[in-house]
Structures
1.
Amino acid sequence: MTVPALELKDLRKSFGKTEIIRGCSLAVKAGERIAVIGPNGAGKSTLFNLISGRFAPTSGEVLLNGQRIDGKKPFEINRLGLSRSFQITNIFPKLSVFENLRCGVLWSLGYRYTFLKFLADLDDANERAEQLMHMIKLDRKRDILAINLTYAEQRALEIGITIAGGAQVILLDEPTAGMSKSETKRFIELIKEVTIGKTLLTVEHDMGVVFGLADKIAVVVYGEILAYDQPEAVRANQRVQEAYLGSHVADAQANH
Amino acid sequence: MEFFTISLLNGISYGLLLFMLSSGLTLIFSMMGVLNFAHASFYMLGAYFAYSTTQLVGFWPALFVAPLLVAVLGAAFEKYCLRRVHKFGHVPELLITFGLSFIILEMVQLIWGTSSVDYRVPALLDGPLFKIYGTAFPAYRAFMMFVAILMLIAIWLLLTRTRIGLVIQAALTHPDTVEALGHNVPRVFMLVFGGGAALAGLAGVIGGNAFVTEPGMAATVGSVIFVVVVVGGMGSLSGAFVASLLIGVIQTFAVGIDSSLMGAASSAGLDITPQTFGYALWKLKISQIAPILPYMFLVLVLIFRPKGLLGTREG
Amino acid sequence: MLKVQNLHAFYGKSHVLHGVEFDVGEGEIVALLGRNGSGRSTTAKAIMGMVDCTGTVDWKGRQTLGCKPYEIAHLGIGYVPENRDIFPKITVHQNLMLGQKSAKQKGRWTFDDMYEMFPRLKERQHTEAGVLSGGEQQMLTLCRTLMGDPDLIIIDEPTEGLAPKIVELVGQYLQKLKERGISVLLIEQKLTIAMAISDRALVMGHGSIVFQGTPDSLRADAYIRKEWLEV
Amino acid sequence: LQATPAKPAPAKAGAPAGALAGQTVRIAFMDPLSGPFANVGQNQLKSWQFAAERMSGAKNPAGVKFEVVGFDNKGSPQESLNTLKAAIDQGFRYVTQGNGSGAGLAILDAVSKHNERNPGKELIYLNYAAVDPAMTNEKCDYWHFRLDADTSMKMEALTAFIKDQPKVKSVYIIGQNYSHGQQVAKYFKEGIARKRPDIKIAGEDLHPIGQVKDFAPYVAKIKQSGADTIVTGNWGQDLTLLVKALNDAGLKIPMYTYYAGVTGTPTALAAGGDSEVYVVAYGHANHTGELGAMGAEFFKKFDDDYYTFATYNGISLLGAAIAKAGSTEPSKVAKAMEGLQVKSFAGDVTMRASDHQLQQTMYITKWQKAKKGEYSVEKTGYTFVPIKQMDPYVSSTPTSCQMKRPSAS
Amino acid sequence: MSAAYYEFKPHNIGRWILWSLFALVLLVAPLVFTSSLSQTLLSQMGIAIIVCLSYNMLLGQGGMLSFGHAVYSGLGAFLAMHTLNLVSKNGFPLPVSLVPIAGGVASMLFAVVFGWVTTKKAATPFAMITLGIGELVWASSLMFPEFFGGEGGINGNRVAGPARFGITFGPQIQLYYLIAVYTFACTALMFAFTRTPLGRMLNAVRDNPERVEFVGYDTQKVRYIAFIIAAFFAGISGGLAALNFEIVTSEVVGGQRSGAYLLFTFLGGATFFFGPIIGGILMVLAFVLLSEFTKAWLLYLGLVFLFMVMYAPGGIASLIMMNLRVAAFGRLKELWVSYLALAFTAFIALLGAASMIEMVYHLKLNAALGPQLHFLGMTLDAKGVNSWFGCVFVMLTGIGLFEVTRRHFLHQWGEIQEYIELEMKRRQNL
Ligand SMILES: Nc1ncnc2c1ncn2[C@@H]1O[C@H](COP(=O)(O)OP(=O)(O)OP(=O)(O)O)[C@@H](O)[C@H]1O
Ligand SMILES: Nc1ncnc2c1ncn2[C@@H]1O[C@H](COP(=O)(O)OP(=O)(O)OP(=O)(O)O)[C@@H](O)[C@H]1O
Ligand SMILES: CC(C)C[C@H](N)C(=O)O
Ligand SMILES: [Mg+2]
Ligand SMILES: [Mg+2]
């Protein structure tokens, strides 16, 4: 049996007295696309924060390719090949699009803290940044400061930075939030394209996105994983219906 | 025992004095996030205004008039200068207060001259309040402590009984939204800055004659009041209060401690002679560094508890 | 109640709204639809006096253009901004307190009403609002505005980031508002909910209103939908 | 531009006064004229200008005219070097400075280097108040002349006074923790051990300069120690706050100081009420005669006190030296200045050749309410009255100076 | 802005020209300004340029607001001076020209220690820690005469060791050229730093430290390394200052010095690389010349800051860049008449205001010397109604005219900016 790309073992997190994550266990195989859904405040973003090192778990384990990463700093986790995007756009506002992306690739290409080489001479990094820029379709905005991009473009850049380091496991937190229908559609295609061959976890509320993107769905309710299964099975699951779906809004989205 | 009691009394009263000096800064810094480098200048203005008003109408009216004048100046500065740079971020805000401190200093020198002025403690409060072990406790010092406590209560009421604190905190991140909820944000900012300036002015009225009213007086309190505010914790009034008392007491007791590293080393069997490397450091007595202990305290607190003693936020 | 005429709005030099005209009646839910960047949020901000604009905005017979945002708020217009502009450093309860225009204000709504509406908020009432989940923040902004007891409430994309069930809930609550005589100007992206609850729909495109009518007529108008809404 | 004669008048040998009359000697004054110490600098600049004006022309043996121009060194050693350069560019050959030994040492060193590197364009540095003993000891320089008495001399006078005070039994030393404060402590301990070994040092405290806002803890410590006398080199705020704290605590013991007379300090002292403060200095507020008249006139003109009497000595010495040298050329004047003796306001003063330290009379004065006819310092109603006058030899201290004199002519 | 755009052009002629020009200015400046004061001023400008640039590594590039940068330039100066004395007194075999490097290395070592605690934090805690450390170092600088030389500081003689090629560094001009070489080299190195991976990550840390952690970098370490590098350059400037003044006193580590670095770096413009160069030059001019020119210099300085922060928060560099942008779109020539008019009217207004300020100062400081004062070739009577009336009149006229031209200019400027925005959009969509 192969080692799962990402595995959670009885993960728990409390803030003060309230326990927000109450024992999540989950194993994601390499190359799978998982959608994480659940009611507001269920703990989806918190889960992502625990995995990516923003918070340290109260107890439990997180394993990346079999290696424990819980309690590590975000940058250590990132170096091990896990990258994430943010629910609220989190980019480098005063750097250009190109620079944003280049910042994302530098570490993975081994440039670390060097100040003895010129950026301009780092052909591999520049090429990779150009390539990413092309992938997220921002070539024409190459030298625009990120702060001057439109919302959708910023979201795209957010994804671009996330995948820049070439991490094999990618976490996306509501990547399409705030986008219109048409943009969302385009965006799903984009995400699909750039994450080929990678392990992907996405939080989403838009069922259209969820069903369009996911191989499997994990349903988080009140800090626990209520279900983890194929989309069709989850949709049919009675408890999930009660807790989360079960409305014409979801149906309308999913059937769109 | 005698020394301990007197030192404790001195420590607490010095702590309260620090609080008095820094309360206005706490108010402005914690609410508006502005590192007001002109705070000490407002303090100085308070002293000078009080000096002039005292000559005209006496000390007691000056106690109200001078802070009021400072408040008006502070509010005007907020309205015409500070507000414009708010959107550029904290560094420009800080620099503009820097510029203001230069201007105030020069103005003070122009109006009142470069020397100290003869601003005295009112006769009513001149002299000792009581004697303890033969050492007098001056009445004016007690008055200062009293005013410091009043300031604490006033700010506390302002923060808890009104929503000004909430409005400002909210407005720091989303001024437009707060305004759309029906709050006159610019006016609140102006009032708070004016209020902070008034507190500085009041401290000046009282500190000016307790110490020396001269153009250099701003510079001498300049950085220690930042220490109080930061050690206490940004955004925390009680923190500033605790920090003032703590710094006051620690510093006062440190003055009484004449031991040095050399003493510690020799009791540990090491022999330190003037030839030893870093002899100057070895022979330094704790009492000699007492007045700069607050800065060490500051550095240590920030490293181990960047939020400050009772603070809730880091930035 | 609200009558907007010939509204032009500017961000610095860029002209964003080009003569917007519409009105909102008492107890009416009006949906303002349109693509990203069509100018819906700008319309809301213009009514609230938060952008430079010209034209007339008539509220209960009074011209409010040129008034300050807080004055407009005091006249009874509530605004729920997009992007979840909650105040991150203060608690949930304090956020709600700021919704009231003064500490003494007694409105149609109490804290308990809000907590009843969204029990999740009650649970979190003493936490810093900044750590709330995205959805919880969204609920909070809505409640905060309601605490100000407005007669007209302008809501900018309230269902963004809410779970489908909650979206439906919000729809129900908007209808309840309407029952209490409050008018709603609902700016939405998600047609499903907007069409379900609104009395009238407006479609905006390139800074002006390109369609006005009932939801049903909009549903029927394939051209408008294709050209000005989704694909 | 040049201060020295452009057209050498046909020399009447042996009658230099006639030859020099009408020439102008320009002195560059460099001290803080802005910033926190501006008050002192402004007062001293006026004093120099006042003395120069008063003693110009026929009033000095050389018959030259003196002119003093102020340069703002902001109290900073580095800025002093800039002002020195500016002064050199403008043709000044005489420089005076006094406020702060830091700037003083910088000027001393720079003048020395300049003179070495630019023969024929020498400068003379008249130091009127920088009192670090180093300037006339290990760091002494041929081009530097000190008009004030240095820390060790003042302490010599002070200990000589204390020696005769039987009620002094236990002394507390408090000072600012920098070279001056450390020196005061050192010289006091040395001197008193020599003169009154029975006097106990009850305690010694050095505090960072300008950092103490509240001296109450120090006063508590002093009281605890049982000292009956305080000796301090503190100045400015550090002095006034100490005095206030002593008053507040009701600790009435005599305090011996160096700098209670500096601009601003008397006002602050007066505001603090009666206190027993003594000052050791080479002058006091109640001189009569020429100096007294000057003080009165100065007050009338500037509404300010004249207390930098070194300006008087400085100009007198310079005039005499120029007359003796028969030239305003600094290299000659410097030589003439060595060992020169002139009549001052309190007997004769001598510029000791071995280290260029002026030997002069010293006073111990006491701060008290001014009686009728006494000079009211800073209009406070208080004054410094002399209680002891000491001849120059009393305060004379040995020097370790190994003066390097220019070899040529 | 535009700098990044040209990055990949292999032969960047513009940049070559700029750097050659910089070198040329350094080369000929002392030939134009020959007095000994101006030579030492030029030397000090070189020193100030280095230290302001190094300060801007923290402030502009790393978003670290330091209140204690003088600690590093100052300690560098002290150690350089000790090194120089080793050379001159003990014959330590180090050429004098390399003494500044010793200062740099020493500062770097201090930064390794102090920086480790300082850079643990960012934003306000960072600023406050630097304030605290600055105060501590300043206080110790007076307490330990053994190392810092007490009030007189420590001095040395830069004419030390064997002269190479007849260069002793005795004459100021020789030292100036040494400083010029260092200034050029340090500027080039610091510019190069902005083009390296670490330099770029430093910008990223300034903008969004949290995100930096999620692209694999330890923000603390980025700040720490940058801090050490900045200290190195600060130390070099300190070492040069030690050679220039041949004396180092405790003022060099003082808070005022640190404050001046902050103020003038900002005034020059922290958002552009070359801003601090302007700032450094202005710093020397303000402290040395302005104070000679007028007693009211602190007032003027305060006012300049107030207005600059309010109306040009990007500093002088941003004003220059804005005009360059206009020039790049070929529309600067329309503006020069307005600029001339603005300058002229502003001059009139300032003349009136400054005359009044000078009269007030005169009344306050030199009233005893009579009411006459000379200012800019005019003779004013500080007690005369005519002078006051005249000044008020001049000032009001100036202000009035200025306001008229300013309105006109703003209109023009807005129009040009609009044009540029449109043009840029157009080019983008090409
Ligand atoms: N730092 C924190 N301190 C206290 N409570 C927290 C903190 N962070 C998150 N929470 C709480 O944990 C709960 C889960 O939040 P989380 O952001 O994970 O929800 P979510 O599932 O992402 O919801 P949404 O879909 O609305 O974004 C929320 O109730 C939130 O208030
Ligand atoms: N602060 C601003 N400065 C300049 N232009 C702006 C600003 N805010 C919005 N715009 C521009 O105004 C236009 C209308 O924006 P608005 O936010 O009103 O659109 P919207 O319909 O609400 O879209 P969204 O779905 O993105 O919320 C857009 O082209 C946008 O780029
Ligand atoms: C000519 C086209 C290929 C590009 C054009 N500027 C556009 O993006 O619309
Ligand atoms: Mg979430
Ligand atoms: Mg919008």
Note: The interface with chain C takes residues 15, 18, 37-46, 87-88, 150-152, 174, 177-183, 185, 205, 207, 244-250, 252-253 of chain A (CB under 8 Å).
2.
Amino acid sequence: TGSASGGANTGTTTVAFVPKLQGIPYFEAMNAGGKKAAEELGIKWLYQGPTTADAAAQADIVRSFIQQKVDTLIVAPNDPDSMAPLLKQAQDAGIKVATADTDAPNSVREVFVNQTTEQNHGKALSESLMKAMGGSGEFAIVSCSETAANLNAYIDVIKKDVAANHAQAELVDLVYAGEDQAKAAAMATDLMNAHPNLKGIVGLCSAAAPGVAQAVKDAGKIGKVFTVGGGTPMSMAPYLKDGSSSAAVLWDVQNLGYLTAWTGKELADGKQLQSSFDVNATIKGVKYDPATKVELLGPPLVFTKDNVDQYKY
Amino acid sequence: MTITALKQPDAASQRKRGFGYRAAKMLLTQRIALLGLLTVIVLAVMVSLNSAGALSGSYDADYLAAALISAVPLAMLGLAQLMVILSGRGGIDLSVGAIVSLCGIVFGYSYGVWDLGLFVSILLTAAAGALCGAVNGFLVAYIGFPPLIATLATFYAFKSLALIISGQKPISTVQIQEFFSAAQAVEIPLIGQNLPNIPLGIFTFLIPTAALVWVLLNRTTFGRRLFALGTNDVAAAWAGVDTRANRMSAYVISGLISGLVAIVAVAQFASARPDAGVSGNGMALPAITIAVLGGVAITGGIGRVSGILLATLLVVWLNAGILLAFAGNEGTQFQLLALGVLLIGASLLNNLTRKKFGVLH
Amino acid sequence: MSEHPTTPRIAMRGISKNYGGVRAIRQADLTVQPGTVHALVGENGAGKSTLIKILAGAEQPDTGTIEFDGKPVTITSTTDAIRLGVQTVYQEPQLFPDLSITENIFVGREIKRGVRVDWAAQAAQIQELLDMIGLPHKLATAPVGDLSIAQQQQVSIAKAVAGDASILILDEPSAILTDAEISVLFSIVRRLTARGVAVIYISHRLDELFEIADTVTVMRDGQTLDTYDIQDLTVTKIAELMVGGILTEQREPRSFHNVAPTLELHNIDLGQLLNGINLQVRPGEILGLYGLLGSGVAEIAETVYGMKQPTGGRMLYQGKPMVNKGPAAARRRGITLVPANRSAQGVFSFQSIGFNISIGDLAKLSPLKGWVNKRRERDIVLDLIKRLGVKTPNENQPISAMSGGNAQKVVIARQLLSTPKLLVLAEPTQGVDVGAKEEIHRLIGQLAASGTAVLVVTTDLAEVLRISDRVLVVREGSIAAEFGPDATQVDILAAASGAVTTRKAS
Amino acid sequence: MSTHLQSRTPAAAGTPSPRKMLPRRVTGQEIVLIGIITVLWILLGFLTPAFLTPGSILPLLVAVAPIALVGVGMTFVIITAGIDVSVGAAIMVSAVITAQTMVATGIPLIPALLLSIGVGALLGLANGLLVAYGKIHAIIITFGTANLFQFIGLRLFGSSTVNGVPGTFDVFGRGEAGRTLGIPHSFAITLIVVAIAWWYLRHAASGRHLFAIGGNANAARLAGINVKPLVLMTYVITGALVGLAACFVIAQGTSTLDQSVGVGRELAVIAAVVIGGTSILGGRGSVLGTLLGAILVQTVSSGVTQLGWPSQLSDLFVGAAIIAAVGTDIIRERSRRKP
Ligand SMILES: Nc1ncnc2c1ncn2[C@@H]1O[C@H](COP(=O)(O)OP(=O)(O)OP(=O)(O)O)[C@@H](O)[C@H]1O
Ligand SMILES: Nc1ncnc2c1ncn2[C@@H]1O[C@H](COP(=O)(O)OP(=O)(O)OP(=O)(O)O)[C@@H](O)[C@H]1O
Ligand SMILES: [Mg+2]
Ligand SMILES: [Mg+2]
């Protein structure tokens, strides 16, 4: 067997990140941020994801990273529960483990690199939507995977926030379109037909957000039906500009990737995280809660037609 | 009479041919010989890449053993496909993945929520799987649905049911999380010190299932009847085989095995996910691929347990190697390429075999 | 006639063909003159079908040359052959079950206007063709899958005749046709030869050759022996040439025990197909059931065996009322059946000989129910292979590599795992060569002698007379007549085709 | 003279008119489907008043178009007793190549269409060559090529999305640009393709040969039909229609194309074909049925959403629809075969 600190790599710290799936702008942007960090911090950044958001395929990749004896292994789990035992296995092999983007709360991970809280994100979505809708009217949600924990948490926050603060607004339907833009668009069309008074649609994930906007555009209902969603800037830019989407709520994904890589290095070096710190000139005021071991990048970022062109992913 | 006169010189001439010819014939006619050779080639290539430092991690016994964890559901579902494909008349089961999802929820509730205890929960889950299989079997054997269509329909239905009864939420209570120990790697008693730890599922699920299927096919009259009706349905009926009941049984067994895989999947993922068997490309297509690669004739009546097991080993170890050989996203992409090439290559070889040597085993 | 004055229509020389290790034909020669019927005879597996498949372009030869009207040709596909005017009726009907009879007949050479099929023109031609082969007009639009096997064979013949044939190949067309249908076929053949068409005619019914053939080529072991004028031959002579030895007619006297019947049918009905069938068969007795195709004779066998459930009447088995839910139930009672269509109903093609035999009674394979004891299986199978004289190196050979006669013996062996109390044989020697036929007949005699009641259902007149103690003739779903062993072929045929309506006491 | 035949002769009495020589224009299955769809639409019209409005029906028809279009090719393939499970992955390859080319060069509509169709046909050619000349069961080949196409598609995507896809294909889209006189272009094109395919299968000699091949490939060969080129053709046609459908899919998507495009479409297409009464065993089938099958499936999933029922239910109904549709077909065939 090889030495404790690496099989293929010699000397430099290796940080591996396993996204939920490869090839979507969101995780590729995290990858870009991670690569940038690797250059600046002098570490080795490994990125490998499954072709579909599949827990089993992801597990195979995690196993191969354990085998590669990376220094830090960071995962955005498709299924938090199933990732927990694998993370334990990695830790037993002497690897520092963390999660990013999506947590595995019941696991041995040493840090969760969180973009923003579910509370904040959900609230930003509902506030953007209510602002566009003028605080009243019927709205619907097009979600993606039926089983995605974070999406389901956002839904709860939106429901509660609207009930508490916008009595005239009403959630009339909730549908699931998978990670399929065309299906999201078709379902949004059906929703607008079923509810002629529909005033707002939330496209919850990065596939649904442009899908619902496209549906509004196709139906010629720009200005009558307002959409918000969790889309990436470049995919949302055309819709933000033509008004079929009012706002895209996300965070600076490249910075999240950068922070993920940086955190990986800190873990590998055995350093203790401060409760609040700056990473570099652009990533400032990161919070860390030692009790829950959660890092927080900052408040969500709301893209509108005015700022969307600043982000190239 | 004439036939033997024609055949005997052939047998004699075969005896005279050299070792090379016989080896080639064996490789081409015996699918397991081909699979064995391919597995050895994969291992050899990977190990030499490994020693040349071309891999990003070491391709060693520990890794191979750890990779076996994904062999458990794959091979078991391959065995499920073996049963139904053998039964002939276009036998196939597209619904196995959906049954895994549905039965996983059944297990999640019975073990994780209602606390019925492991034994009862396993029985209940297996029974649920068998019931799903019985629906397929009834449609195929008694109503006369083409299997592809019956199982496509039940694929949609079971998949939908799993989401509905679970309320789209994975079941992951403490019991379920602790159940992961059932999938963990263990040391083999007595001789284990010098060997890598093997995933427990191999012993608790895969080997018993494989042994059971082997015995069923090779040592029981049910197996005989299954081969008979897969080879020639009409002749089987004339020979007094109850083709409907026996064909239905094949689907029931396929469902039963899928139910067991559901338990494996719950253990492996430490949660009962309503999309366990259908997320991504699902579990059915890889299982059918394994069956075909393992030499099961899609037309029925030909297939062996050893072929399934070897094909699984080949695919699992090849995939594990590819992940180490290609860094980044290419890794998982090249797995697709490898599977496609293997499948088409093996089928083309089959074809050559038929031309050159007649029957295939 | 070997020195024919005209150029031969077809001259095949030095043709060889191997299937893997099997040498199907070796250096075969065949010369056929225009305007003649050239019979091709030989034992099962002699290579007749393979030779004509090469001419039809369905198989490619390994060696050899083919001349057509004196000019060398290469035939690499059926399209090539069809272009030369080679039309073929294959041994197995080659039809499309979901297409209508008209489409089946015109498929591959539709009458077209542009790319479109000219349905009207085809409709006009089809009537003539149906008249010629004697099928009713209303069948023109019926899907072929709805027809009986014999009707399908007639459609195949119509299909071949409809093409502008210069050579017509008929591979055992008569095997599944009734005598009436055969005489229609012969008149068609004669009309074609009168127009100068060369006809190659393959048959195991040697007697009919004297009615239709001009010359006969005998094949043995994949080789063509010689070609003879039909005038120079007799049935015995042909049979001797085929097997390469002298055939001795041996009729073993059967002792008939007059005891309680094994099976009695009382007024059995089966929908429209059977009405009021009465029969009895006793231990040791061989009862022949003769009927033309479609007469219901096959349905009697199927009803006894439980494949079909009677809609009226009573069956008594060993004196007790019997209801057979299916073949499995029949087998448990000791009733077994050799099905008529060997390849479709009898053979598990790529499985071993052992498998093909033991499937008949799996319960015998181990004292433990549901279990298979391989050693015991081997012993049982080897014993049967020896008893029936199946020619094979070992029991693991796939049955697909065997000749028709040997495969038939394997199917019969399947029924003898435990000595049956009642054995039903449907067309036991169809498509089986003379030598094997002999052996199978002897075997049936032996079984009867050991106390088995035997019911032989056949459309082979000679066979039914030769082996039966009694013959029942079935016509239009009823027993038309009963004969003792002294009956003549003429008596039976007359009864079957409707000339005799009164029941003749035996 | 043929008295002995009488007890066995099926079909109606009397000499058929030439008209009856023609293959049936509309099959029983199609009539059943038209009935079911009509009932469903009326029912949905009552339950959710918006269902029978153009705003609801037109997007439904647009969504039907790609499935029905690929379904036409799949019907050809299945009639010859083949199957093509690679169409989902093939859509992905066609779509990504076309989208990338449009982004890079801004080519206009017709060249973009031809490119997509060409790529699709090429993929179909690969399938067809392997199936027709490799003599391997189609399901195995196309499982294999599905993996290969997916590999090619993912490599082309290069772990990224295609951003800023121009609106070249908007004429096939769900929006205003996609309609003339209220009729969606994509659906109109699909109707034309279905009509041509219907005529071809019913009247052209080579169309009839496809049924012959599916009924009995060996007999077709012996009858002098060039089986291999025809089988090859069905896969190439499927590929070309996949290429066209890929354009529709791009048009129905957003300005970003991601690698989930086409995934899992093969099952939806096969479902539409079998609901439409095409026998998976070959030899029997109709493209009109396929179109109706696709409409039925889309009606079910739209209906479920518009009724406000949980969207997970729609798969359950699709499963039930397959069983009901194919079940009635099986029972009808069986009763016809019984004299
Ligand atoms: N496709 C095949 N593959 C392997 N062997 C074959 C094949 N076809 C024929 N044979 C073998 O070739 C030999 C000649 O067969 P063929 O069918 O020509 O005989 P035949 O004279 O027509 O017999 P029959 O009277 O039974 O029809 C036989 O030994 C047969 O087993
Ligand atoms: N009543 C009839 N009497 C004689 N011939 C007819 C009659 N009806 C049709 N035909 C012939 O049958 C053939 C097929 O008819 P037709 O041209 O109407 O078919 P089609 O238009 O292609 O199909 P469809 O009947 O489905 O519209 C034609 O060649 C026509 O001449
Ligand atoms: Mg023959
Ligand atoms: Mg007309």
Note: Confidence is low (pLDDT under 50) at residues 247-251, 500-506 of chain C.
